Amino acid sequence: MSWLNSEAFTLFGQRIIWSDMVGNILGLVTLALGWRRSLWTWPVQFLSGLVLFAAFYGHLTGSAGKQAVVMAVALYGWWQWQRNEDRTEDGHIVPRFATWRERAAMLAAAAAGTVAVALLFKAYPSLSWDPWPDAYIFVGTIVAMYAQAKGMVEFWFAWLLVDLVGVPLNFANGYAFSGFVYVIYGALVLWGMRDWWLRSRRGPQPALEGAPA
């Protein structure tokens, strides 16, 4: 799999390697399928993680480990969507808003997870190129995937918060190609957020107790 780490082309003076390009393209496809509420979003997410895992394994252990976690969460998402009984006529899941308790739990997990992962990265510098933003993006990605697995509209907000750090960070570090890809991610996130938001409002609303049918 050494070809994954070879140069595909040069853009904006930046060497684009095959694993970066393939991983980013699969990431865009994953978001597009998530927008369409297609079950195939999870296999594509798993494939993206597998490509990057193969590219990193053996010389970037920390990055490979992060992709292993992403693949595990993708399998969890596939399992959740398979067993979700709340579906539309076309077989797609029905999005919903998280409860306040779920939101609080995800925010707490994201904050605690970011601190814990950043401290781990600082303790083992070989695991990360920049501990705090790397931990924020990694944990934010896992939280977003979890919310998506649960069919929550908030998963788009989590992706947006990841993008708000990912876009300027990539440009600041000279990764123009990845920065532009994150801009496209941002556009997909906004469109997907609008679609899921509207669809969550169209679902059947529970009747009030004692109200006439």
UniProtKB/TrEMBL annotation:
Transport is among the record's keywords: yes
InterPro entries listed in its UniProt record: NMN_transpt_PnuC
Entry annotated with the keyword Methyltransferase: no
Bilayer topology term: Multi-pass membrane protein
Chief site of localization: membrane
Keywords: Cell membrane, Membrane, Transmembrane, Transmembrane helix, Transport
Membrane-crossing residue ranges in chain numbering: 16-35, 42-60, 104-124, 136-162, 174-193
Localization per record: Cell membrane
One Pfam family of this chain: NMN_transporter
Protein family membership: Belongs to the nicotinamide ribonucleoside (NR) uptake permease (TC 4.B.1) family.
The protein's name: Nicotinamide mononucleotide transporter
Organism of provenance: Streptomyces musisoli
Taxonomic lineage from the root: Bacteria, Bacillati, Actinomycetota, Actinomycetes, Kitasatosporales
